[in-house]
Design brief:
By secondary structure, this protein is mainly β. The protein starts with 11 loop residues before the first helix and ends with a strand.
């Protein structure tokens, strides 16, 4: 049986700890990964349904087939994921019949991600190809009926193996991750593609894998048998621990062997042996413990994980602290620079955070003090700069703080905007942040963020130990718009082309936030709305995933073929692009 990376046989306390860590890290990813015009499943802010006449609703029908044999696939699930916040927040689904056919009705017009999934097959996107599994968006105009849609599903691949220690004994509950290079924040880095845990025999099995070139890593979970305890061993042996190890047995990904996975392949015997290395202990205490707290946890994460999509996997060591003394001991920490973090709750829902940085050399680290704080509140107001009436509803928006680098451990909660335009962000720890607004209508952009004389968009919002007030956020409905079509080398409209709009005038720390990426729809069309004024380069690529197209090196290589745009407020630009064919990436 395959387990998810965080569902081994843990105690309730351990399970809560893993769940908390996962939630915090994924929340940071969510903030960074969100594009203003793309609503990812589960991320949408609920919106009121559009008032449409029955004849303005759409329908979609087609068939799902086996990509190799061509046979019809019954019991495949089709889902339309809304991509614009103004569309219905709830996805539309259906299931194929005995002949592999499906039909969906009463669909609101708009843009959608369209997926098909069935047990034993790779999840497949509409109009996807082996080189571009992201596929095309599906654009539905009012009253449109799209027929004869065909999905061809590839059989999934399976990878299995065994994880042992240097004595050949099985390691259970080891976290096994399959990783693939993707682009995030403008650079290629390894990102999780699939994961599982070993059983009591040290065995794992990963399934649902699409064709591709992967790397496999194994991490031993923290030993919670000693969580919060004190080592009373009569003979103190040098500390040793198992570091993250890449198949077939290297500590660095540069020495790892890639796994070239074919459609439907079953790769057995992908075994990994973990070997112990010298490690050290980090001891200290948690202060600022309130009378209502019932203990908490302390974790350590390499500082190098900041900005790294594998950051959560590298957050390996953890322990619990209890009682008013707050003493803790972290074991198995290898030399390097780290964040050490304490996290606690006080009923009913208040949370406290403490964070310090440490250097681990060739000896144990003593006397670390983590002072718990509930963080501070950041208060401000949101207003619209416009000389024309708008339908913007503040109560559908959120204001969020995000650090310039991904995976810097912060615990802020986005502030919901009131009808009058005020907002309050809780648990803001000491850090410098970018300020973002979520849930705006698609034509809006953030025009300015100021706090007194400070230009926050230019300098960031610096939070220290005192509450922050007077943050003035101005949004405008006069965002620029860039639209057009993409053709291939033969001049034919190209569905699923990867289109990138890269900001040139934004400072480096905001370029990832302002960069827009999209897949051309079934008609080769694309559209970006709500763009801040400034200088941009517009690219189109063929034969590459949409996310991959944002790689800074790729953009630099092909900048001569890009279209340069200078956008003013409210500008409307239309461009016909010829896609650049990307091969052997």
């Amino acid at each position: 049986m395959t387990l998810s990376p965080f569902r081994g046989k843990l105690s309730p306390r351990e399970f809560r700890l893993f769940g908390m860590l996962l939630t915090l890290m994924l929340f940071t990813v969510t903030l960074w990964g969100q594009q203003p015009q793309v609503a990812i499943p589960g991320r949408q802010t609920p919106q009121p349904a559009q008032t449409l006449k029955p004849e303005e609703l759409c329908s979609v029908s087609g068939v799902v087939k086996h990509a190799v044999t061509g046979e019809a696939l019954r019991k495949a699930t089709l889902t339309l994921w809304p991509m614009e916040s103004r569309n219905a927040a709830v996805p539309s689904t259906t299931v194929t019949d005995a002949e592999g056919k499906f039909s969906m009705k009463e669909i609101e017009p708009g843009q959608y991600r369209f997926t098909a999934v069935r047990t034993g097959f790779v999840q497949t996107n509409y109009r996807s190809t082996p080189a571009n599994r992201q596929g095309a968006t599906l654009t539905l105009a009012k009253g449109q009926s799209v027929k004869d849609v065909e999905f061809r599903l590839l059989p999934h691949a399976v990878i299995s193996g065994r994880v042992t220690d240097e004595d050949g004994d099985p390691i259970q509950h080891a976290q096994v991750q399959l990783m693939i290079y993707r682009t995030m924040q403008g650079k290629r880095q390894l990102m999780p593609a699939s994961g599982g845990s070993t059983n009591d025999l040290g065995e794992y099995r990963l399934f649902g894998i699409a064709p591709g070139r992967y790397y496999l890593s194994v991490t031993q979970r923290p030993n919670y048998a000693f969580a919060g305890g004190v080592d009373r061993s009569a003979v103190q042996a040098p500390d040793e621990s198992y570091p993250m190890t890449y198949f077939p047995g290297t500590l660095e990904v540069t020495g790892a062997s890639p796994l070239n996975v074919a459609s439907g392949a079953t790769m057995q015997g992908v075994d990994v042996m973990l070997r112990k290395v010298r490690s050290f202990r980090v001891r200290g205490r948690v202060t600022g413990i309130g009378s209502g707290m019932r203990g908490g946890n302390v974790t350590v994460m390499p500082k190098s994980a900041a900005g790294n999509a594998m950051g959560f996997s590298m957050m390996q060591q953890g322990t619990m602290w209890r009682g008013p003394g707050g003493e803790f001991e972290l074991r198995g920490v290898r030399p390097g620079s780290y964040f050490v973090m304490a996290h606690a709750w006080e009923p009913p829902s208040k949370q406290f955070i403490g964070r310090e940085t440490i250097e681990v050399g060739n000896e144990d680290v003593e006397g670390v003090t983590l002072t718990l704080s509930s963080g501070v509140e950041v208060n401000g107001s949101l207003r619209v700069e416009s000389d024309t009436p708008t339908e913007a509803k503040f109560e559908e928006m959120f204001v969020a703080l995000s650090p310039p680098a991904m995976f810097v451990p912060v615990y802020t909660t986005p502030g919901k905007v009131t009808r009058e335009g005020s907002f309050q962000i809780a648990n803001a720890t000491a850090e410098t942040y970018n300020v973002r607004v979520m849930g705006m209508p698609p034509e809006f952009f953030v025009k300015s963020v100021r706090m007194g004389d400070i230009d926050v968009m230019e300098n960031g919002l610096t939070v220290s130990g005192t509450p922050v007030s007077g943050v003035d956020v101005v949004i405008s409905p006069k965002g620029a718009e860039v639209s057009g079509t993409v053709t291939d080398k033969d001049g034919k409209l190209l569905a699923a082309a990867a289109v990138v709009l890269h900001p040139l005038s934004a400072k480096p720390s905001r370029q990832a936030e302002l960069q827009r990426m999209a897949s051309a729809d079934q008609n080769g069309a694309f559209r970006f709305r709500g763009l801040p004024p400034g200088e941009y380069r517009l690219y189109a690529f063929e034969g590459i995933e949409g996310g991959e197209a944002g790689d800074a090196d790729l953009l630099k290589e092909h900048e001569a073929k890009a279209v340069t745009l200078s956008l003013k407020e409210g500008a409307r630009e239309a461009r016909e692009l010829k896609a650049v064919l990307v091969e052997n990436r």
